[in-house]
Structures are given as structure tokens and as C-alpha cells.
Amino acid sequence: MLSKQEEYFLTIAEAGSVSRAAQRLYLTQPALSGSLKRLEEEMGAPLFYRDAYPLRLTPAGEVLCRYVREERDREQALRQELARLEREPSGTVRAGFNFWRSSLVLPKVLPAFLAKYPKIRVESVEGSHQELAARLDQGKLDFALLHRPNPYPQFPFTRLRWEQILLAVRRDAPALAALPPALLEGERPHLSWEALGAFRDTPFLLLKKGQNLREQADEIFRSAGFPPVAALTTSNLMTALNLAAEGAGAAFVSDAIFSGGPLSPALRFFTVGDPPARWETGFAFRPGVPASTPTRLLVRAIQDAFP
Predict the structure, then answer these.
(1) 267-272 and 190-191 as β-strands: parallel, antiparallel, unpaired?
(2) How many CB atoms sit inside 10 A of residue 126's CB?
(3) From the CB of residue 205, how many other CB atoms can be counted at a distance below 10 Å?
């Protein structure tokens, strides 16, 4: 977008004098002259010949004027295009989510989105990140909500946000009694790799192989230096979390789960690792394929819902 200084400069160029431009802009002449002087200092060159009336552009001024007019025209065209798209967008969006992410995103986004854009149809596909990547590669999805790091550098990626990986465990879990009280202070205490060793004998509720969160958990276990005692493997994160709340074991979760509503008060959550474990969540798109209007609108709605 044009800066105020650029807008003022263009008005002076079109008016032919600072005084006439000041009247058009409802500014005082000294204020407008000061703005022009600061712009010339930033450009490192005079923009007008002061001895001419009406004012004439210097070579530097002509270059800047051409640039500013092109930028203004592009901005106007963009606003017109966005206004046109907002009036009556239609089409289909094929969006991919992993199993637990869809239960957080879709209820929060889709009702308002479909009410606003009744002619847009959303096809939601759930699967592991490998399945979603394969569908994206085959052109069967318009975008997928994935995490990085991942082995898919071919997909253009737009970050949604960073998320921390948390250890979830029942408040009366035996492993917590082995930790110094100072490590348990605060809403989300932190456990170093060494402190995480207190959970060496704790049963873990793990997601199935091939799911991103399971891969992150495996990396955490490697960094902490012990293999997990697996109490259960499931493809449903909320199943693991609910079992943890009942004392069946510990689970690793993304802090995105707090977007889904209240969780069991029986649970405590810890950040883990040195530095704390986290991943990057964002939108992966088909390479070389511009996003359609419905796709852009749905992506924007998700970004607005999960800032």
C-alpha cells in the first residue's frame, strides 16, 4: 500500500504546486512541504525543480512518480478484484486435515464460512500427513493443513502459527511425585530432557505410526534417552487425552487442543525439551497451481479463527 508521503507526493505532482495540493489534501502548506522534504531526504535526490511553475519533476521525481502511479493502480485493481470476489464467490474447496485437527478447525470455521459463502462447497478429507501429502501431490486436494518439519519441500507453505508440544498427564500421576516441587510451579511448567526421565516407567498413550504427533513424540523420547512404555496406540488424539485424564497414562499433544474448548481439570500440561519442543503449523498448497478464490477465502477464514 502507498505511504502517506507517496500519496502526498503524487498529489503535488498532479496539482503542479504545493499550495494547490495542500488544499486538496486539507493540509497546511508547511506540513505538506515538510513531508515532501522528508521524502526527498529518504530518496537522496530532489523530486521537483523549484524554479518552475507549475512544478516540474526531476528525473528522480519522474521515476518515483511512475512507480507510485503503478502502485496506486495495482492497489485499486486489487481492491476491485477483492470486492468482486466477496460479492458472489462460488466453487469447491478440497481441504485436508489430520484426524484430530479437523475436529478443532472445522466446527470453529465452517458454520460462519458457509453462511457467508453459501455457494462455496467444502470437501473435507481426513488422514495422516503421508496420506494428505499424497492426495495433494495427485491434485486431489487444494490445500492441506500440515506441520513442519516434514519431508515435503515440494509444497509451497504458508505458516498459520507455531505450536508447542506438551506432555499431558493426570495431576496425581506417580511420576510427578518424583519431581522437585519447584518444577511443578506455574500453569505450564517446563521439563528438561533430564527431568522428563522421571516418566521412564510411565505408560504412554501414543498415536499410531505415520501421524505427525507420533513422529514428534518419538523424537522427544530419543532426545530424553528412553523408549516409551506403550499402554495404547490410537489414531484419535482425544481418545489418548481422555484416557490420560482417567489415569491410564501420559500423552503428547499440541497446544492447539486448547482451541477446542475446556479440557479435563484432572490434567496437567508441561512443555518439554531444551529448547522446548514445538512445530510449525500451516497450509501446504499444490506446487505451480494458483489457489482458487474459494481456497483463498477458506484459508483466510482459518487464519482469522486461529491467529
Answers:
(1) parallel
(2) 16
(3) 23
Q: What are phi and psi of 226, to 5 degrees?
A: -150, 150
Q: Which of 239, 299, 243 is nearest to 99 (CA)?
A: 239
Q: List residues bridging with 253 in a β-sheet.
A: 166
CA atoms within 13 A of residue 47's CA, in its CB half-sphere: 27
CA 271 to CA 255: how far, in whole Å?
A: 9
CB atoms within 10 A of CB 174: 13
Q: In percent, how much of the chain has pLDDT > 90?
A: 55
Longest dimension (CA), the chain: 86
Q: Which triple of cell numbers denotes residue 185?
A: 510451579
Strand pairing partners for 193? none
| Backbone angles phi and psi of 141, in degrees to 5 | -130, 150
How far apart CA 298 and CA 110 sit, in angstroms, is 9
Cell of 21: 495540493
57: amino acid identity, one letter: L
* DSSP structure class, residue 179: S
Q: Which residues of the chain have pLDDT under 50?
A: none
What is the β-pairing status of strands 143-148 and 267-272?
unpaired
Please tell me the predicted confidence (pLDDT) of residue 85: 65
Phi and psi, residue 230, nearest 5°: -85, 115
Q: How is residue 127 written as a grid cell?
A: 488422514
DSSP string, 152-168: -TTS-EEEEEEEEEEEE
pLDDT value of residue 285: 95
- Are the CB atoms for 240 and 214 separated by under 8 Å? no
Q: Which residues lie closer than 8 Å to 112 by C-beta, 6 or more apart?
A: 301
- Specify burial of residue 72 (Cβ count, 10 A radius: 0-12, 13-18, 19+): middle
Summarised one tens digit per residue, pLDDT across range 150-190 is 888 899 999 999 999 999 999 999 999 988 888 888 889 99
